[in-house]
Amino acid sequence: MSGGRSNRSWCLKTEEGSWVFKLFDSGRSNRLFPNDPTAESAALQALVGTGLAPDFQTSFTTGAGICIVYRYVVGAPLRCTDAETIRTLARLHQVRVPKLRRLASTPKALLQQGRKILAGLRGEGVKELDRCAPEPRDIPAGPSVFLHGDPVPANVLAYGEKRMLIDWQCPAIGDATADLAIALSPAMHVVYGAGALTPADELTALQAYPDAFVIRRYLALKPFYHWRMAAYCAWKVEQGEAVYARAFEAELSRI
User: Fold this and answer.
1) Cβ pair 19, 72 in contact under 8 A
2) Closest Cα partner for 157 from 166, 148, 149, 168?
3) CA distance 116 to 228
4) With contact defined as beta carbons under 8 Å apart, do 27 and 66 qualify?
5) Residue 249 has pLDDT above 80, yes or no
6) Contact 209, 174 (CB under 8 A)
7) Sign of CA dihedral 199, 204, 209, 213
8) Tens digit of pLDDT for each residue in 50-100?
9) pTM tops 0.85
10) Is 123 exposed, middle or buried (CB count within 10 Å of its CB: 0-12, 13-18, 19+)?
């Protein structure tokens, strides 16, 4: 199957139905996106019957890595995050949280995460990030919720008016704003979508989130999320992934 940048997938079609076999590449894990098959299995099992994720079937170990199996879902990957996607994330954030990694999303934590990603890197991009790093502010942490962790446009399937989240290899427990930051990220739209949303389209999508407190927190934390994502893009460029050069500029422009 086409689409994924981290793992390989196959679709098995039979008279009884269709299944996806997803084989994990352990070398594709990083500080921002862990690519954890055990976490994906836990997340999918916690979401069976909710309509938020494909129905989990099983997992097994192969000589090439861990493979998980889930029901194939007919749908088209999104080209950009829309209001219905944001409402779908809000539904996820109300689901009981399984045991997953915890994310910290205070300004201090986001800056620390970005600096760890940049550790050892050189170049103009790193210097630019040093110059424009936002000053830490006291923004208390919000309630912890069930996070997808990687809700980029390509990880959202549209079928009619509904949305389903796929590729659950980065789930977590943390602030709802963490999912909004990835879903609305200019860089992630350059890499996985049709290009960065305009500020107006971003705001329209954001306003679909049903909790005004979460929206206010996200708007306050935006500079820090943009800075961390720009740091991630600078690191990806160093890894030889050229598309992230454009993604870096898109994210940097919003800090």
Assistant:
1) yes
2) 166
3) 10
4) no
5) yes
6) no
7) positive
8) 999 999 999 999 999 999 999 999 999 999 999 999 999 999 999 999 999
9) yes
10) exposed
